[in-house]
């Protein structure tokens, strides 16, 4: 039996196909742009890890030789160790401070808006300018900090000469610059905790730290994890603060992987080693992020049940 | 009258953009034509532009521009590392609009020489006036596999700068004759001024170029980290003696405790403000230290050769200090090489060298030191000539010399700050340097 098909149907099909294509066509320019400026160069850079290449040298395929060179270099392991310590100290200090300030400011506080502005101010300062400013402030002979210490009878501190001091200085600078970011995420989360939960807990006899431990902390934990993940990734690639302040010294005490990469790529022009270091950094960052993402996923699934 | 504002609508914008893209793709934009025919591009440090164009010796570039009908020189100036990065990157391209580059001696080694034009054919067909007049050591190090790749244009040779006012104030007679005397005098010159400002007897910049600055002290014993024939000698007595002396000065507070964070440019301020009584650095810095507008001690900072150690007194008149020099090179990818050569010729003539020397340049021609005008203008001309007779580069050029410099700096810091003894630090450094040279 013949089936009657309305004449307009092919046209309708075409229209519907076109309608389905429209969103893809609209986002295509952006995707193309990302492909050209981000994806393709990333693959190109990753590919460099398997070549020996520099100025005046034709690229030669070396397989995994660059990885062997990097893993045999004592300065790589020193930089990796410093990076792991640096990232952990910086991120947990920032989370602790960010959360503490967020909880404090979430209570009724006089001049609350002013305090929030003051706390997020470092985030508005260019990292380069901030580090140069602190470099002058911490100058051993003429710096303001040692001048103040001198007024109370404390000997000048050699901030960037003693390895431990130098490490502490770059950690504190990074924390000073980035705590506002953590604070902003956590402050929003703390403000979002339902007041009814606190009221119910108070009725049950909870007070002070108990309210924080059993109501605030579990409620803001997803936000803490997000802040933790972002800051882990960002802190892992910290460069300008350390480069301007200490250039990785003294005695390699503040040498981070990002500085190791920069040296190999832009001082020694060994692009293969620099690309290899970048791949290692990406791998370690992805590994760290995946732990937190997995944790986040499990929490979401559990909550959904 | 009401001011009329022209607003470009979307259609006009698309038309303009399309036209520009088409012209750019076909090479038709006017600025492209100008870059090739109307200007001349040089990548250099700012000081190279300054000494070629301003000062008592006058501008030596403008007459050359007029002669060749070129509008201007596009001086692309940057810091030392950026100059080389730009130069190497541009020279690696198939084509570049860069015409001439300045390169430091430590950066011109066989692999990098591939990027530049051998100059022998130019020297043979259109020679530079009295090419043999350039210091032989410089010419030799610019010759790779029998071909010369650069023409030396500026040197910086180290000297000892000392503040005469402090010598008089502290009752010290004259400058030191040996390096041991220098250390003793530095102790006498370490004091606190009546205005509360501490003065350090001796300052050695410890940030960035510490390997080179330490070499200057080691040369008092004729020491090296790596010799010019690539032998690693850092663990031998001359270098260890130098490091031991510096370590003792650091412990005694003669060297500032912030030593490793003091850069060469910081040292200018230290000398100008009198925070340092003596220092080691390029002799050319004498002008900066005595600058009437910037210095608190104008005309009172003297410059001399670095004295040798007591044990080498009979062997050397002055220490064979470090000298580093810049040369002019033509990238192989340049588009107007004959013009580039003409520019190099102009800057390399005897007259141009004298003019640049009067503008503050360290001349690389021996004959410039015989010029009365130069000698009259430069209080340290005689000292510099003596130093140049025996001076040599701090490190020989090889593929991984920059990496070697960084490793040396770390080892030197370790010895001076006391993390290791000088001998242990150098013993640990030696195999690392061997690996870089042989690897």
Write the layout of secondary structure elements.
The complex is a heterodimer of chains A (305) and B (439).
Chain A: H1 9-48, E1 51-54, E2 57-61, H2 65-71, H3 74-106, H4 112-124, H5 127-137, H6 144-151, H7 163-191, H8 195-203, H9 208-236, H10 240-245, H11 257-267, H12 271-304
Antiparallel strand pairs in A: 1-2
Helix pairs in contact in A: 1-12, 2-12, 3-7, 3-9, 3-11, 4-7, 7-9, 9-12, 11-12
Chain B: H1 10-26, H2 30-37, E1 39-44, H3 46-53, H4 62-68, E2 72-77, H5 80-91, E3 100-104, H6 110-113, H7 120-125, H8 136-141, E4 143-144, E5 147-148, E6 151-163, H9 164-169, H10 179-188, E7 191-192, E8 198-199, H11 210-218, H12 237-251, H13 264-273, E9 278-282, H14 286-289, E10 301-304, E11 323-329, H15 337-348, H16 350-358, H17 372-377, H18 381-390, H19 401-417, H20 422-438
Parallel strand pairs in B: 1-2, 1-3
Antiparallel strand pairs in B: 3-11, 4-5, 6-9, 6-10, 6-11, 7-8
Helix pairs in contact in B: 11-12, 11-19, 12-19, 19-20
Features:
heterodimer, A: 305 residues, mainly alpha, 3% strand, B: 439 residues, alpha+beta, D-Maltodextrin-Binding Protein, domain 2, two-stranded antiparallel sheet, globular, disordered N terminus
Protein model, in words:
The complex is a heterodimer of chains A (305) and B (439). Chain A has 305 residues and is mostly helical. Chain A has helices at residues 9-48, 65-71, 74-106, 112-124, 127-137, 144-151, 163-191, 195-203, 208-236, 240-245, 257-267, 271-304; strands at 51-54, 57-61. Chain A has a two-stranded antiparallel sheet. In chain A, helix 7 (163-191) crosses helix 9. The longest helix of chain A is centred in the first third of the chain and has 40 residues, at 9-48. The model of chain A has no long low-confidence stretch (mean pLDDT 89). With 439 residues, chain B is an alpha+beta fold. Chain B has 2 domains: 40-149 and 324-388, 3-Layer(aba) Sandwich (D-Maltodextrin-Binding Protein, domain 2); 157-322 and 392-438, D-Maltodextrin-Binding Protein, domain 2, CATH 3.40.190. In chain B, 44% of the residues lie in helices and 12% in strands. In chain B, strands 1, 2, 3, 6, 9, 10 and 11 form a 7-stranded mixed sheet that branches. Chain B has a two-stranded antiparallel ribbon with strand order 4-5. A two-stranded antiparallel ribbon of chain B has the order 7-8. In chain B, strand 4 (143-144) and strand 5 form a beta hairpin. The relative contact order of chain B is 0.16. The model of chain B is unreliable at 1-5 and 20-37 (pLDDT under 50). The interface between A and B is medium-sized, with 23 and 30 residues.
């Amino acid at each position: 039996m013949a089936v009657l098909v309305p004449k307009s149907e092919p046209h309708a099909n075409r229209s519907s196909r076109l309608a389905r294509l429209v969103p893809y066509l609209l986002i295509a320019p952006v995707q193309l742009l990302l492909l050209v400026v981000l994806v393709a160069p990333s693959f190109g850079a990753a590919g460099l890890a398997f070549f020996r290449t520099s100025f005046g040298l034709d690229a030669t395929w070396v397989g995994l030789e660059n990885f062997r060179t990097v893993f045999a270099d004592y300065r790589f392991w020193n930089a990796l160790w410093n990076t792991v310590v640096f990232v952990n100290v910086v991120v947990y200090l920032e989370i602790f401070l960010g959360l503490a300030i967020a909880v404090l400011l979430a209570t009724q506080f006089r001049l609350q808006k002013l305090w929030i502005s003051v706390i997020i101010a470092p985030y508005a300062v260019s990292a380069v300018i901030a580090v140069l400013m602190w470099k002058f402030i911490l100058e051993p002979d003429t710096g303001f900090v040692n001048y103040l210490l001198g007024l109370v009878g404390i000997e000048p501190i050699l901030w960037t000469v003693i390895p431990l001091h130098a490490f502490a200085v770059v950690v504190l600078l990074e924390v000073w610059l980035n705590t506002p970011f953590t604070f902003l995420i956590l402050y929003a989360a703390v403000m979002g905790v339902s007041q009814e939960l606190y009221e119910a807990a108070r009725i049950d006899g909870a007070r002070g730290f108990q309210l924080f431990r059993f109501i605030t902390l579990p409620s803001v934990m997803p936000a803490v994890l997000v802040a933790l993940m972002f800051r882990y990734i960002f802190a892992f690639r910290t460069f300008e603060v350390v480069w301007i302040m200490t250039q990785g010294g003294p005695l390699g005490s503040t040498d981070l992987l990002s500085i190791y990469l920069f040296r190999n790529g832009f001082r020694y022009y060994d692009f293969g080693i620099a690309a290899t270091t970048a791949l290692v950094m990406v791998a370690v960052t992805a590994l760290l992020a995946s732990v937190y993402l997995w944790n986040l996923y499990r929490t979401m699934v559990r909550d959904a049940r | 009258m009401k001011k009329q504002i022209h607003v470009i609508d979307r259609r006009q914008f698309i038309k303009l953009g399309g036209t520009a893209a088409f012209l750019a793709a076909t090479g038709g934009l006017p600025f492209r034509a100008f870059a090739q025919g109307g200007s001349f591009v040089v990548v250099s440090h700012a000081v190279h532009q300054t000494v070629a164009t301003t000062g008592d010796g006058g501008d030596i570039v403008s007459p050359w521009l007029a002669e060749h009908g070129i509008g201007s020189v596009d001086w692309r100036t940057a810091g030392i590392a950026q100059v080389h990065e730009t130069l190497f990157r541009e020279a690696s391209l198939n084509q570049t609009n860069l015409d001439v580059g300045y390169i430091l001696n430590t950066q011109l080694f066989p692999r990098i020489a591939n990027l530049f034009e051998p100059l022998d054919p130019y020297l043979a067909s259109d020679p530079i006036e009295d090419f043999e007049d350039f210091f032989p050591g410089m010419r030799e190090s610019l010759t790779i596999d029998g071909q010369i790749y650069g023409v030396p244009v500026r040197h910086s040779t180290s000297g000892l700068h000392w503040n005469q006012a402090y010598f008089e104030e502290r009752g010290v007679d004259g400058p030191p004759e040996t390096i041991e005397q220098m250390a003793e005098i530095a102790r006498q010159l370490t004091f606190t001024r009546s205005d509360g400002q501490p003065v350090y007897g001796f300052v050695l910049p410890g940030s960035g170029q510490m390997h080179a600055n330490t070499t200057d002290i080691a040369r008092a014993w004729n020491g090296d980290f790596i010799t010019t024939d690539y032998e690693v000698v850092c663990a031998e007595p001359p270098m260890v003696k130098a490091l031991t002396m510096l370590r003792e000065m650091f412990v005694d507070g003669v060297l500032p405790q912030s030593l490793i964070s003091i850069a060469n440019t910081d040292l200018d301020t230290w000398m100008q403000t009198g925070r340092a009584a003596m220092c080691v650095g390029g002799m050319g810095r004498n002008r900066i230290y005595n600058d009437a507008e910037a210095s608190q001690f104008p005309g009172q900072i003297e410059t001399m050769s670095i004295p040798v150690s007591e044990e080498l007194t009979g062997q050397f008149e002055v220490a064979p200090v470090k000298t580093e020099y810049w040369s002019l090179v033509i990238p192989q990818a340049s588009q107007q090489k004959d013009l580039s050569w003409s520019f190099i010729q102009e800057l390399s003539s005897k007259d141009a060298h004298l003019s640049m020397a009067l503008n503050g340049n360290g001349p690389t021609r021996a004959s410039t030191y015989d010029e009365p005008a130069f000698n009259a203008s430069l209080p340290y001309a005689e000292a510099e000539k003596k130093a140049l007779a025996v001076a040599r580069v701090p490190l020989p050029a090889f593929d991984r010399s920059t990496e070697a410099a960084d490793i040396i700096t770390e080892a030197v810091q370790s010895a001076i700050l006391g993390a290791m003894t000088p001998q242990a630090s150098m013993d640990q450094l030696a195999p690392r340097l061997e690996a870089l040279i042989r690897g």
